[in-house]
Amino acid sequence: MFKRLMIAAACLLLSVQFGAADEKTKGKISIWLGYPETLDAFKLGQAEFKKKYPNVDVEILTFELREFEAKLAVSVPAGSGPDILALHDFIFPRYYEGGSLADMPDDLAKAVNDKAIIDTPFRDIVTREGKPWGLPWWSGRNGLFYNTDHLKAAGLDAPPKTYAEVWQYAEKLTQKNDKGELTRAGISLRLTGPSGGTQKFGYFYYQLAGEQMFEPGKKPGTVRVTIAKNIDAAARVLLDHVEHLHGPKKSDDWALKHDAQGFAGGAAAMFMRESWVIPFVKKNGPDVKFGVAPVPRDKAWGAFNLIEILSVNKDSTLKDAAWDFVRILQDQAILDNVLAGRLGYVPVLSSLLGRFPAGDRDLALACLAQVGLAHLAERRADTLSGGEQQRVAIARALAQVPAVILADEPTASLDPALTTEIMGILKAINVERGLTLVVSQHQLETALAYATRLVGLRHGRVTFDGPPSAVTPAVVQAIYGGEEGNPARVPLPKR
Fold this sequence. Notes:
A 6-stranded mixed β-sheet has the order 1-7-15-4-2-3, with helices on both faces. It has a 3-stranded antiparallel β-sheet with strand order 13-8-14. A two-stranded antiparallel sheet has the order 5-6. A hairpin with a 2-residue loop joins strand 20 (482-483) and strand 21 (486-487). The protein is an alpha+beta fold. The longest helix is centred in the last third of the chain and has 18 residues, at 416-433. It has helices at 39-52, 65-75, 92-97, 106-112, 120-126, 148-153, 163-173, 196-209, 231-243, 259-264, 277-284, 319-328, 334-339, 348-353, 358-370, 386-398, 416-433, 444-450, 473-480; strands at residues 7-8, 27-33, 56-62, 84-88, 127-128, 131-132, 135-141, 143-147, 175-176, 182-184, 214-216, 223-225, 270-273, 290-293, 305-312, 404-408, 436-440, 454-458, 461-466, 482-483, 486-487. Among the domains are: 2-141 and 306-331, D-Maltodextrin-Binding Protein, domain 2 (3-Layer(aba) Sandwich), CATH 3.40.190.10; 143-302, Periplasmic binding protein-like II (D-Maltodextrin-Binding Protein, domain 2), CATH 3.40.190. The protein has 19 helices and 21 strands. The two termini are 49 Å apart. The radius of gyration is 27 Å and the shape is globular.
């Protein structure tokens, strides 16, 4: 389960249709990454990019996150650095305010401003005075990492679910030697780093206060400090941190290795971090068995997103090519669209990078075949007709191997012929797979033709529940309403 809790790919589904190859543009674009686990996605983009720009080389370098941040901080202000800037939201403002970002092309700016593509909070992060300066690419969330062997040895069957339980678990999971010195932290508290303990302090603060210490201000690019009105929550978190660093409840120690390094080395039973920890621990602590749970709750339950943003360096000499590389990273074919239905069943990094097991690809093809689209598996989804796109959506739902499918107005905006086609496919799925289908439908004639049970709703209340054969003019009147003496004129189809 933990592998699908931690990161949500926020890739856009943009239309990327390049014309003939550009052989005139020559040179090299460079890309630096602070999240090495995203490298394969860029490599896939690199192969596609070469088809458009055969004479442009692409150099992709990866660094440990802090080294990456330090290299950017030195090179970009000096007029060098990579052409494509992969910036997380904590450092994005630094490069905007330093005037280091190139103007976005109109099509990408339009996509960022489209609420159907980019959620408003993400848009605001990259926007200044109404103008976006970067493309939110993917988002990750923090979670509670825990060593399953440590929990089992302590008689704990599951990770903590509440804020109070975190500290109870920490005390129970802490180990000491004969001298009373900690040899293992019950929980590794973030004590140093660019944001120091404040960042992890903020994780707990969010659970108690229901908001971050610094929330977006009314104007994009500004912040609102929330601590004053949540001073009790802030004080509680601070005291809990102090109490578990000193005194009889001590559960962490400065002398121990901390954060991901400490967890991978077995020096901590729990800690909170983002999704990049997964490959780090697998590489640096291959014998560590671990899981990830949502940050334990108090007043609030959840976590705030961390955003990765793609921008182009204003000093790049190949800005157009760099933006085309960014566009390529958003592309998606029909088969990948159907494979999106398998995202919850594959490891997070595999889903982010589009790597699905062979069995999942076979399943996706089988689902496309059932809706009559296997021959279009390699076509782009945005080149399909409305009816074909509806069939892709059905195939994507089937790829999840569900017990029940909820179809919300699956024939809306379709002509009668396509309506018959789509409803026929759903009916076949119902019969052949034995799946329960719950379909919302405004067209009574369509509902009567395909349903085995009808539930009529009016103003949120059930006015009819029964087989199609029991639908009478009085039932129609009860569902569709109408004023007294002026009944609703909804014809009852002949059967």
